[in-house]
Amino acid sequence: MKSIIGVVNPKGGVSKTTISVHLAHAAWMEGDDVALVDTDPQGSVLDWLRSRTDEEERPTDEEEGPTVVHEDDPALLPRKVQNLSQDIVILDAPAQLQEMTGQILSLSDLCLVPLEPSPLDIWGTEEFRALLEEEVSKETTVALVVARRDPRSTLGGELFSLAEDSPFEILDGVCQRVAYKRSMAEGETVLEGNDAKAKNEVRELLMDVAQLLSQ
Known about the structure:
Elements: E1 3-7, H1 16-29, E2 34-38, H2 44-53, E3 67-70, H3 77-83, E4 88-92, H4 99-107, E5 110-115, H5 126-137, E6 141-149, H6 157-164, E7 169-175, H7 178-185, H8 196-214
Parallel strand pairs: 1-4, 1-5, 2-3, 2-4, 5-6, 6-7
Helix pairs in contact: 1-8
């Protein structure tokens, strides 16, 4: 059965694309058949893919990662997802609260919401929080993913406070590491680099996601 994961937050700069790409690549490396759908008109995932396929040192006779497709029309997204043959489909959402956001939420079995552990960044809008709570009421799993955390700190206290009165799961996500920026710019992921801590973060996040999908 197909599992659909939406990575959504109307606020920009919270590592949505970084998390989408790394989860997709990590699952692909585990042997899963994965499709990564770029729904952003700016095409950030497509930029990553172009950097990846432009790398001359890469072999050309084998697959290089998950299948990447683009669809920025919310009316066409459900059919695009339905027609994908992959077992895991990850939807990388655009910034801003718009029709595409609601479409991704309605399609997803699991919604991942990257948030920075800062009082100013917990929510972009209360409207977005209300949308997520509505999805939970429909029995869709929603998990907040800590993003861009200082690696020297633990999970932000603000997120722990939020968890006390929230229907959402809390997952430790990706830290603020140079390895993520460098790998994305080069069309790679940290799983192909030398930063062991970053690799472990991605693998642990993938395990947490797999556990939520199995519930």
